[in-house]
Amino acid sequence: MTASGLSTTGLTKSFGGVRAVDGATVAFHHGKVNALIGPNGSGKTTFFNCVTGMIKPDAGTASYRGRDITGKAPHRIARAGIGRSFQLCRIFPRLTVLENMLVSVRTSSLLGKLISARQSADVDRARELLARVGIDHLEHAEARDLSYGQQKLLELAGVLMADPETIMLDEPAGGVNPALIDRIGKLVRSLNAEGKTFLIVEHNMDMVMSLSDHVVVFDRGRPIAEGTPAEVQEDPRVLEAYLGV
Amino acid sequence: MPSDSDLVTVPARARTSTTTRVAKVLGLLVLAGLVISFPSLAPDSFILSVGVVIASYAVLATSWNFVGGFTGYISLGHAAYSGLGGYGTALLITRADVNPWLAMVAAGVLVAAFAVPVGIASLRVRGASFVIVSIALVLILLLVFQSWGSFTGGSNGIRLPRPFGDDVLRPEQHERFFYLHAALLAVLLLCWWAIDRSRFGMGLKAIREDEDKAQSLGVPTFTYKLVVFVISAFFTALGGGMYALWFGFLDPIFQFSILVGSYMVLMSLLGGIRSLFGPLLGAVIVGYAMEFFKAQYGDTQAHLIAMGALLAIVVLFMPDGIIPALRGLVNRFRPQAASIREVSAAELAEQRRAAEDTGGSERGEKEEVRR
């Protein structure tokens, strides 16, 4: 158990009368591949958005590496070392693949912002990462001309370009073919071996069970069970949540 | 189901960088030559004054494009900044006896400072809401400048002294102001180009494409938007001030007019908001067309109808503007433009066989990819 990673206490978010996230207290294992699963509408994506600052929680706290990140602006949370992908893959459609990567380059100095975006060190790193996900031959193409699978790989490469310690993926296997799911799984495993922490929301149970070290099961906006994939699969509360009462 | 290994992808177009670079330099030289020789080529003083009007529109549209082109926030209210720049210049000269050129720059700085709180308030909303907020500011300023007669001259307008003195004749004055506007435009284009290639510019373009996504990657979106908004307001005010010095008279109904802001948007959209020279090209076309219609049909509404029709045509057939449309046309005839779609080896072989049979399917494939 490590408390140094990402954790939340009593996180709550309501939309109108619906409590999408309802007092969720979770600690994710730092340095591991964590999975967040649960039936549709159980609040996984809302939880994701609360943690990454896209929406402000009504109550509760989120902290990362001992720092309070509750309600902070998304770019500050990103700069604290958390990268994320979106459920319906989001890229910059009319920028080229290489430009998509260069958006992730960060500088704090004024001069650093004014110099050319195509610094050779950044371009080299972008090409390296594009090669790693397997789309380096497309660097001059506009992102909107890529296939959906390629766009997913580009989004992942863009997140990696920012060099986050913790990577949150919202349905990385959604809408892509089995060959690509396999490729994404291999990437997650090798990046985890290099020390990246993952938090993955996913419906593809084969992927979840084969990939993750720690599984958290959500139902009605809060965790109902957690443990290793094998433990969670045996848990009667999980079966009940998935199969209905 | 194709496995990972037999996915073949046709390489993206190879860049013929030397040829394009030479073409770009030549194009720039031709443009500069045209601008420099225009006053001596202009047959009479009227045409020269049309040239100044078009140059002024080019300055305003290019200034607008710092916000519109980079961030995609469409402000219909940029007349607020050109009007304030003009009035600021006029009031500093007539009320505080400041040197005209100093007054123009000072007004620009004051307007930039004014744009900070306006930007903080208005850049919180996106899309249509931002457009409405931007219009509201123009309407408020129109009322203020019309009603506050004792200070602004009210509906009677305000007259500015001629900056070069009375011994400089009208054609000479037109010529000087044409070059001054051209110089200001050159500075603007240089700044736009520098931002376009910078990391700051990359962040701004990311905001245009997907603001939330940009922020999730660590781009401080609000600060970026605000900075470029203030830069845009500053340049727009300089453009308004320079126009005021040339024209010598300001009427609030024309200065704080939704139409002026709409022209900046129309010109930029027409030329292409993602292109450096898009607003300039749009200003030349729209500015010339407006003067043509006014000369032909007098002071009727004919030029407004023509503008409306032009905008409809652009939005329907060239949503990205003329420059990207032309670029697309050129690329279409380039042999190396190719599919970037992932295809399996079997599909590729089939396509090649079909291409040999008909000689035409490869063409169709390119069309499809380009959409």
From TrEMBL, chain A:
Q: Which SUPFAM superfamilies match?
A: P-loop containing nucleoside triphosphate hydrolases
Q: Name one GO cellular component term.
A: plasma membrane
Q: Which CDD domains match?
A: ABC_Mj1267_LivG_branched (cd03219)
Q: Which InterPro entries match?
A: AAA+_ATPase (IPR003593), ABC_AA/LPS_Transport (IPR051120), ABC_transporter-like_ATP-bd (IPR003439), ABC_transporter-like_CS (IPR017871), BCA_ABC_TP_C (IPR032823), P-loop_NTPase (IPR027417)
Its name, as the record gives it, is Branched-chain amino acid transport system ATP-binding protein
Keywords of this entry: ATP-binding, Nucleotide-binding, Transport
MF terms from GO for this chain are: ATP binding; ATP hydrolysis activity
Automatic annotation (TrEMBL), chain B:
Where are the residues of the annotated region Disordered? 350-371
Q: Where in the cell is it found?
A: Cell membrane
GO molecular function ontology, one term from the record: branched-chain amino acid transmembrane transporter activity
Pfam families per UniProt: BPD_transp_2
Signal peptide (UniProt feature, chain positions): none
Give the record's keywords alphabetically. Cell membrane, Membrane, Transmembrane, Transmembrane helix
List the InterPro entries hit by this protein, alphabetically: ABC_transp_permease, LivM-like
This protein's membrane topology, according to the annotation, is: Multi-pass membrane protein
Q: Which residues form a coiled coil?
A: none
Q: Which residues cross the membrane?
A: 22-40, 46-67, 79-96, 102-123, 130-151, 177-195, 226-247, 280-297, 303-326
Q: Name one GO cellular component term.
A: plasma membrane
The answer to whether UniProt assigns keyword Transmembrane helix to this entry is yes
This one is known as: Amino acid/amide ABC transporter membrane protein 2 (HAAT family)
- Organism, scientific name: Prauserella shujinwangii
Ranked from the top, the taxonomy reads:
Bacteria, Bacillati, Actinomycetota, Actinomycetes, Pseudonocardiales
